[in-house]
Amino acid sequence: MNNKLDNINDLLRRALASQVEMGLSEVVISRKTKKRFESDGQSSVASVQVSELFPDLSTESLGHAEYESLDSHNAAICNCLKCPLGSTRNKFVYGVGNPNAKIVFIGEGPGREEDLKGEPFVGQAGKLLDKILAAINFDRTQVYIANIVKCRPPENRPPLPAEMDACFPYLVEQLRLLKPKLICALGRTAAMGLLKTSAPLGNMRGKWHDFKGIKVMVTYHPAALLRNPEWKKDTWEDMKKLRAHYDELVN
Questions:
Q1: Residues in CB range of 48: below 8 A, 6 or more apart
Q2: What is the span of the domain harbouring residue 150?
Q3: Domain of 101: which CATH number?
Q4: pTM for the model
Q5: Residues 58 and 131 in one domain
Q6: Tens digit of pLDDT for each residue in 228-238?
Q7: Which residues in 128-164 are b (16+ Cβ under 10 Å) and which e?
Q8: What is the pLDDT of residues 71-128, one digit of tens each?
Q9: Which of 12, 38, 71, 218 shows the smallest number of beta carbons within 10 Å?
Q10: Both 39 and 88 in a single domain?
């Protein structure tokens, strides 16, 4: 019996740990279970703080470790199965570029080519991104490129909010290691995941946003430009602003 309870407690701890990693500090439990911690007969369900269930299980103790390098961070998380995308991927797509880059481009998620190669933006949208970078005197050796999620969503659908939330701490740690001066969010999904907003892309473009003290520019995703070439003019205006501000910060 004790072994069975230990197994249940271990499973519960893992579930709670997963929730804490995603930024949640409480879980919903039944009224019957709630009575163990406080008397409340008002509702059929109630929420309880994780720390009430297991005092030694806290956000601080389960927070993501601060790694010494992008390589060590990648090695630690590349087998992640925190969300369903992990079980359907071919390759984990961590990111690519200069580890000392002062500017980071963040897309939505890997597509078919990226999933096969394990590198972001290597398909048709990637070729267009290379041209965009070249137009503002950048190449892949000078910047860093990543995505909101690191595994390909089935049929290239947009990642779900829960999938983005599960992967978000990994991106935060990447950015902590990179210490960029600027971020360019490519497309509305990337902007939503990074800035935690549901605003239309048109409302986000043309202005600076903030992510943990880093300035963020939002523009169209290269894949959207392939479908809607008329948006390239707006993207060019965004890129000129991005380059000008980058030069100001760096120089």
A1: 26, 27, 29, 33, 34, 37
A2: 70-250
A3: 3.40.470.10
A4: 0.75
A5: no
A6: 999 999 999 99
A7: bbbebbeebebebeebbbbbbbbbbbeeeebbeeebb
A8: 999 999 999 999 999 999 999 999 999 999 999 999 999 999 999 999 999 999 999 9
A9: 38
A10: no
